Amino acid sequence: MSRRFEELDWQNTEMGEISLRRRLERTLEVDVYEVKLGEEFLMSSLFPVAEIELARLGLAACAGAELDVVVGGLGLGYTAVTALEEPRVRSLVVVEALGPVIGWHEKHLLPEAETLTRDPRTRLVQGDFFALAAASGGFAAGGPDRVHAVLLDIDHTPQHVLHPSHAAFYTPQGLRALHGHLHPGGVFALWSDDPPDADFVNLLRAEFGSAEAHVVSFANPLTGGTSANTVYVAVD
User: Which CA distances in Å does 140 have to 72, 155, 160, 202, 213?
Assistant: First the structure.
């Protein structure tokens, strides 16, 4: 059995202090990995269902035999690892703003890190996803200019962003720029911590033509009830 609590890493970043912690969840007798940015909890391995469904729902909407995929936000790696389970994925670029998060995976501090980093289809890129989405060209040097799917899990919601500079992405202009990175028939999928937002669905439909909000429910062992996130899937 592991220690009850261990801080695996702590570093200063341009967005504040970030830490990776592992603790024993006594109610389930399992190790839980958590990420904090300052005093704010960003993610937990106790609730990975919606991050996994982000990849499954997004890629299920993609046509084609070979897919080039971008994941915005590495986090604990659930979305990226799930994307690699899809045999049609030819290449996977994961864009992460914070170097320490990439380092956790390269040092195999997380349970699924080795699966991700040793897959030859994977490229971990340190960069600002939102700046890359707004610019012309690809998400990685030497990578494809256009991709078949973009799976995004960085901000809490389109309204509750981690940094004010992200807000411009969730506008008609920001979504139009992202659209330019997709092949015809491409997919944009987004994780959100809030219930479905009808206004945002309409914004997606105005740019992509087709968009749906999927409610992903999961058991919450801490409350004994059910919690839910939202995955938006927009198809060109």
Answer: 12, 21, 27, 30, 29
Work out the pLDDT band at 2, boundaries 50, 70, 90.
low
Question: 160, 220, 162, 204: which is closest to 58 by C-alpha?
Answer: 204
Locate 36 and state its tokens. Answer: 């904090």
The DSSP secondary structure of 148-213, one letter per residue, reads EEEEE--SSSSSS-SSGGGGGGGSHHHHHHHHTTEEEEEEEEEEESSSP-HHHHHHHHHHHSEEEE
H/E stretch holding 13 reads strand 5-13
Cβ neighbours of 7 (radius 10 Å): 11
Return the C-alpha torsion angle 161, 81, 92, 68, nearest 10.
-100
Nearest alpha-carbon partner for 121 in 84, 161, 169, 168: 84
Domain 47-235 has CATH 1.10.1060.10: no
Listed by start position, the domains of the chain span 47-235
Residue 184 CA to residue 170 CA, distance in Å, equals 21
CB 80 within 8 A of CB 115: no
pLDDT single digits (tens) 154-196: 999 999 998 999 999 999 999 999 999 999 999 999 999 999 9
- What is the Cα–Cα distance from 63 to 144, expressed in whole angstroms? 17
Distance CA 151, CA 159 (A): 18
Q: d(Cα 97, Cα 144) in Å, to the nearest integer?
A: 20
Max Cα–Cα distance, the chain, nearest Å: 52
